Amino acid sequence: MKVNSSDFIISAVGPDQYPDDGLPEIALAGRSNVGKSSLINKMINRKNLARTSSTPGKTQHMNYYLINELMYFVDFPGYGYAKVSKTQRASWGKMVEKYMSERETLRLVLLIVDLRHPPSANDKMMFDWLKHYDLPMCVVATKADKIPKTRWDKHIKIMKQGLGVLPGDNFIPFSAEIGLGKDALWELVDGYIVPDAEEASGVNEDEDPVVQEAGDEA
Ligand SMILES: Nc1nc2c(ncn2[C@@H]2O[C@H](COP(=O)(O)OP(=O)(O)OP(=O)(O)O)[C@@H](O)[C@H]2O)c(=O)[nH]1
Ligand SMILES: [Mg+2]
């Protein structure tokens, strides 16, 4: 997809703040500091629309980014951040679980992992959870630029084995630094957001953004 517009919409803490326009959502899950926000920025060619930080735990809420008035990236708070209290961790778990299991507009979950290291216990748990609920998923192994190209294959193999990725499962090596995997990931995402993509090909770029009146359901 060619990205013409990207906007930060809302930092949501719960369902009543999720957008109600029915547009498809692509959610990003992964441990804190793994590179979720950086991946979004790379995908939409923006330097810092999704706030990134070298301090883990930067993204605390579910941040919605609207792309081409057509779909959302939903940036999740990272898991596995040691300095987060037990209570916070539990509420994170509940929020994510509720969203993932009930959100009708969710089309695909990107599980972001660090290609440099074998998957953590939390990565594995997330992977198993997504599999268990049969949610469409793609493992995106990022920070590939931080290891020599000659070792990518070996790291990919270790990652796939560690998680239990099966042949036919979506798996994309990525780098927000050098753009590796960007085209492949857009191609995949495009496939998951149809048929809305077809409607959007007729979007008039000059004016009249497609504003859908929410709340016809009464
Ligand atoms: N070299 C390199 N650095 C990256 C890459 N992706 C992210 N980083 C760096 O990793 C750090 C964390 O990136 P973020 O995108 O903020 O990570 P996050 O997963 O959104 O973190 P939380 O919001 O805390 O969960 C930043 O310093 C980024 O610059 C990558 O592909 N290559
Ligand atoms: Mg983030």
UniProtKB/TrEMBL annotation:
Residues in the signal sequence: none
UniProt cross-references to Pfam families, sorted A to Z: MMR_HSR1
Q: Which cofactor does it need?
A: Mg(2+)
Q: Which GO terms describe its biological process?
A: division septum assembly
Please give the residue ranges the record annotates as the region Disordered. Answer: 199-218
Which UniProt keyword terms apply here? Cell cycle, Cell division, GTP-binding, Magnesium, Metal-binding, Nucleotide-binding, Septation
Top-level taxon in the UniProt lineage: Bacteria
Name the family. Belongs to the TRAFAC class TrmE-Era-EngA-EngB-Septin-like GTPase superfamily. EngB GTPase family.
Q: Cross-referenced HAMAP family, in alphabetical order? A: GTPase_EngB
In terms of InterPro entries, this protein maps to: G_ENGB_dom, GTP-bd, GTP-bd_ribosome_bio_YsxC, P-loop_NTPase
Recorded hits in SUPFAM superfamilies, A to Z, give: P-loop containing nucleoside triphosphate hydrolases
Q: Which GO terms describe its cellular component?
A: cytosol
This chain belongs to which protein, by name?
Answer: Probable GTP-binding protein EngB
- Organism name: Paenibacillus monticola
Report domain EngB-type G positions: 22-195
Q: Which GO terms describe its molecular function?
A: GTP binding; metal ion binding
Q: What does this protein do?
A: Necessary for normal cell division and for the maintenance of normal septation.
